Amino acid sequence: MYMIFYVLNDPQKLDALLDAWDAIGISGATIVESTGRQRRRAKAHIPMRFSFGFGGSECVDCYHYTLFAIVEDERLVQRCIEATERVVGDLGQPDTGILAAWPLAAVKGIPKQPRSTEER
Q: Could you tell me the residue range of the domain that residue 59 belongs to?
């Protein structure tokens, strides 16, 4: 089993990303609204009187989503990277997000999914 960690830079692409992951067999993910250090510092330097109503939850550029998903194998990690790049573009480019994956030593609480006849 592998953990996938992805920070989605553009929150407007969340539904498209979830659809892309679902299409390759990643049907579950934990989604956390988050922000990074650079965005926090940039927002802190804009006086409220100049924010023109773009503060708090209205500010699309003030947050992003962090997604966590557990997948069965490294093959699915690679498919996840490909699906993610189809939605957001090349992850090597700025403003597309950050994706990391690592093997897990132990996982409990996830029911084993039967493999489709296509994957066998």
A: 2-103
Instruction: Convert the pLDDT of each residue in 42-88 to its tens digit.
Output: 665 555 444 444 444 445 456 789 999 999 999 999 999 999 999 99
Dihedral (CA of 12, 17, 22, 23) sign: positive
- CATH code for the domain in which residue 89 is found: 3.30.70.120
The answer to whether residue 81 is domain-embedded is yes
In which element (H, E) is residue 3 found? strand 2-8
Q: Both tokens of residue 98?
A: 């950050």
**Contact of 77 with 4, CB cutoff 8 Å:** yes
Give domain status of residue 110, yes or no.
no
Is there a contact between 24 and 83 (Cβ–Cβ < 8 Å)?
Answer: yes
Q: What is the pTM of this model?
A: 0.76
d(Cα 47, Cα 77) in Å, to the nearest integer?
42
